[in-house]
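In response to reviewer comment 3 from the previous cycle, which asked for concrete evidence that the modeling workflow produces usable outputs, we include below a single protein chain processed end to end. The sequence was submitted unchanged, and the resulting structure tokens are shown without manual editing.
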Amino acid sequence: MKTSSMWHAAARDVWKNRVIYTLLIPGLIWYIIFAYLPMGGLSLAFKTFKANLGIWRSPWAGFQNYEFVFRDAAFWRAVWKTIYINVGRLVFQFPAPIILALLFNEFKMRRYKRVLQTIFTFPHFFSWIIVASVITNVLSMDGMVNQAITVLGRPPISFLGSTKLFVPLLYATDIWKFAGYGSIIYLAAISGIDLEQYEAAEIDGASRFRQLIHITLPNIMPTVVVMFILTTGNLMTLGFDQIFNLSNAVTKDTAEVLDMYIYRITFQSAVDFSFSTAVSLFRSIINMALLLTANKLAKMAGGSGLIG
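The workflow returned the following structure tokens.
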């Protein structure tokens, strides 16, 4: 009876808010078709794929694909490079939109503030193909930067052909492309702060810097924590489009993160969809583990976390 009453209460709630639930239907359909139904293809990680039999009738292979994956030295190199590059993203890129939002908040001339926000946000709408073309034209051996260096009497620098400069180039271009757009989330959080807190701080003689440290940052910290958890949950998948378009034959080894490894074994060698699916599933499991770990650490640090 208790379960029946719960279902009746839920049905009444749905009917009462039927307009809102109707608006959810297109989103639910999209997720079911493009996010949940394709998950059936993950069974390929435990099968030997036969094109003539299709996904469902291909024979089961157990954990044989993972035996091949874990014996591949290139796989472990790709895992290490993925962790190395993306932990660097957390250190150098993640704070960039927060810092930019704080600077925008301190900018008092509204007209110029809006102009600057537009300028910083605009690169987000460029595809990585366009960004890579711009970077190539600017930093190539005969590009604008090297022309300026040559005029100063110095030899040109191979920015795009240097394995040492490749990772810093990833960070710099990603910050340029996404920091402005990412700052919108933190500006929205800042706009929700009660102005009376700032007024009380001014009466007590607090400087703008102390207000930033003791009012602005603590108030936006829940948003920062949520974004950090979400970023950590994508640690093994960040940056494929960027790396794919910015890498070249010289930096190929440095650029082979896990996504590039999956791309190579799927499209640039003997096609083995079972093998590549096994790697993709492994990557997703690690991402989920990182997400849960970050959420747990956020709760242990006194935050609310993302998952209850």
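The CA atoms of residues 101 and 187 lie 6 Å apart. We consider this sufficient to address the reviewer's concern, and the full set will be provided in the supplementary archive.
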